[in-house]
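Journal club prep — side note

Before the paper discussion, L.F. wants everyone to see what a predicted structure for a comparable chain looks like in token form. Sequence:
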Amino acid sequence: MFKGKTIILGVTGSIAAYKTASLASMLVKQGAEVHVLMTKNAMNFIHPITFETLTGNKCISDTFDRNFEFEVGHISLAKKASVLMIAPATANVIGKLSYGIADDMLTTTALACTCPILVSPAMNTRMYENPVVQDNLKRLEARGYRIIAPRVGYLACRDIGPGKMPEPEELFRWLERELAGPKDLKGKRLLVTAGPTQESIDPVRYITNHSSGKMGYAIAHAAMLRGADVTLVSGPVSIVPPAFVNVVRVTTAREMFDAVTQRQEEADIIIKAAAVADFRPESQATDKIKKKGAGLTLTLEATDDILKYLGEHKKPGQILCGFSMETKDLLVNSRKKLESKNLDMIAANNLKVEGAGFAGDTNVLTLITKDRDQSLPLMSKEEAAWRLLDALRELL
């Protein structure tokens, strides 16, 4: 995603400038060509040699630097740039950009850029909340700049409030989304389920399954990168949720059923990647649970069939995709489910195939629609998610 991309990082006079060094290092490791432009005040907080060492490129602050390798520095960099991120962005630089003032290498390059520009304000809370600064931010946003809202936290001035620049990992995710490629799902609303559900037997024990949630989370992440508005309904998992995704956490099959059906009308595409616990105790009352030796004898009832309900209540134009886990007769059993539950596509895998299934980082999928079967080779779940979305995009 970052290979072959040219990223300009603008660094201004804020104590948060040290975070940008970590961001530059992360981007270089991903294969990006990184150029850092510093204001003179920024050099009071971090030395240009730090960035030059991390990026392998000269750090520029002077518009008229005679040693700059390009003929007209700010223009040539602006032409090459895939994205410009100003982080940290002081109130001073925000004000200059909002009024078109170009009096240093950073501001002149920003005005010459036609690529996306992201601005991450970092300053004292009172400065950030000042109406003048807020007006300047709104002016930039109206002109197409992406504003990354600062976090609330303990600031260098000992105040607590908004004004803290996000951590490098979060800024990295903003750049990842910006550079992910064509936003061919922009304007589409996706509802994705992921992970297992848990049905309590008593205060200590519960029924569940081996689902890790990795496939559903990979789908939600890929859909977000492609511009979709994504809601992820997740059972209990130990995965960091994707950025820019609305996560709804549930535990039981009934909670997942309610969360999905309540949002069905809003979704253009629904992908059920969750592996719901198929049965639950008929009652939580202790008289329904009989001790038998070292184990338990349970009275069970079937959980709600989410896919069946969605298929029966599918609105016109809505795309519905499910997953099928099989140990034999993959195509026959999966196609039966496709037809009986009124699905548009089913992603099937054989749990006996090496590299397919639950907890691993890879999968082997067969994408089945009414018209064709598309067998995918062994690939990472991120790659599989991308291919699955490609197939769904064709159905829209």
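L.F.'s comment for the group: The CA atoms of residues 271 and 321 lie 5 Å apart. Keep this in mind when we get to the figures.
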